[in-house]
Design brief:
The protein is α/β, with parallel strands linked by helices. The chain has 15 helices and 7 strands. The protein has a 7-stranded mixed sheet with strand order 2-1-3-4-5-6-7. The radius of gyration is 25 Å and the shape is globular.
Length: about 375
């Protein structure tokens, strides 16, 4: 017997097929847009255009009885794919007369990403690895830019080897700490120097909306083409000092990574049943557990270097440990009122950001919930 829902399901399938066809058409148009942007040197991410388009689509959706959040979710996911596909068309070369670029450590994951993006932008890129230093002189003697992309623990000693660069060569690094590498580059090279920190990992599909912090060392006008090139890739360039950067990274990276490490280590010590934790978790707890588990799916030496690279990191972690101990003491005393007062004090300190984070997390949690798939027993 035919199921009573079969006719309606068939109609839904037909509409879904139309959606697939429309998305294919949209991606084809995006490919054409990418070619125009590449030709004219336009950034792949245009925030004003994106905001205006989303606002208009939300209004149109509301007028037709479609939840505005639904159309925004669909379009944002589609745009993410669009930004990634625009990489395939390449990018305009901001400085076509630049001599060769040498990426030291270009065989590493993040180094490979920059090698690829620079190549897509029309530059001649050479890769120099630790086993290739017999070729270093020939590669570096005429370099227009040298990008240091080696692990943190060997960054300064690698930079120390670069004393014979051409005076107009741009010397840059992409290390997650900035004070020591910047000082080392300024000491070894007389020409333009800039410290970069990509605030993302090597697995991103596109540079669109990604943040790259940069710290001026010397000769900003001479490396301005590099800033413009990364903006064309879609990145948001954030200028800062090395000291301010490293102080922020103590909280953004070192403390967060350490607390994830400690939480994961504690789960192991009590032999927690991860499968059961996942089954019983709401989306927010599942996401929190996922962020902890994500840490342990990556290179341990990388995170050891990040956490241990700056003495200030240890001081901040010790301060956190003391704050945690104070909170535990409050619980041991059973002082509910003290807990509430402390909670409200922190809430006041966050101010409007608490509401912003609530809204952002709501969207993330809904996506996490939608992605869950249950199998029948």
């Amino acid at each position: 017997m035919a199921h009573p829902l079969d006719p309606l399901r068939q109609q839904i399938d037909d509409v879904d097929q139309q959606l697939v066809d429309l998305l294919a058409r949209r991606l084809a148009l995006v490919a054409e847009v990418g070619e125009v942007k590449s030709e004219h040197g336009l950034p792949i991410y245009a925030p004003d255009r994106e905001a205006a388009m989303l606002a208009k689509r939300r209004d149109e959706a509301q007028s037709k009885g479609v939840p505005p959040d639904l159309i925004e979710d669909i379009l944002r996911r589609t745009m993410r794919e669009s930004y990634a596909s625009e990489n395939d068309t390449g990018f305009k070369t901001v400085k076509p007369d630049l001599r060769n670029i040498v990426v030291i450590g270009g065989g590493g994951q993040l180094g490979k990403l920059f090698v690829n993006m620079l190549t897509l932008s029309g530059y001649h890129v050479d890769v120099l690895e630790k086993g290739d230093w017999h070729q270093a002189d020939s590669l570096l003697q005429n370099a227009g830019m040298v990008l240091v992309a080696v692990p943190i623990e060997v960054t300064t000693e690698t930079i120390a080897k670069l004393s014979q660069l051409p005076d107009d060569c741009v010397l840059a690094d992409i290390t997650s700490t900035k004070t020591a590498p910047l000082e080392a580059m300024l000491a070894v090279h007389k020409g333009p120097v800039v410290g970069l920190h990509p605030m993302f990992g090597p697995d991103i599909p596109s540079f669109a909306k990604q943040v790259i912090a940069y710290c001026d060392g010397r000769g900003e006008a001479q490396y301005q083409w590099l800033i413009q090139q990364m903006q064309i890739w879609g990145a948001r360039l954030y200028p800062t000092t090395a000291q301010a950067h490293d102080e922020a990274m103590t909280l953004i990276q070192a403390l967060r990574h350490f607390t994830s490490f400690a939480y994961g280590a504690h789960l192991q010590s009590v032999d927690a049943d991860v499968k059961q934790l996942l089954e019983l978790s709401s989306p927010i707890y599942r996401l929190e557990l996922a962020m902890v588990g994500r840490l342990f799916a990556q290179d341990p030496s990388l995170y050891a270097d990040i956490i241990m690279s700056n003495p200030a990191n240890l001081a901040m972690i010790e301060s956190y440990h003391q704050a945690l101990g104070n909170s535990v003491s409050m619980l041991q005393q059973g002082d509910k009122q003290a807990f509430i007062e402390r909670f409200e004090s922190v809430s006041d300190w966050f101010g409007d950001y608490a509401k912003v984070f609530m809204a952002e997390s709501k969207s993330l949690l809904q996506q996490a919930h939608d992605s869950r798939h249950y199998q029948d027993d």
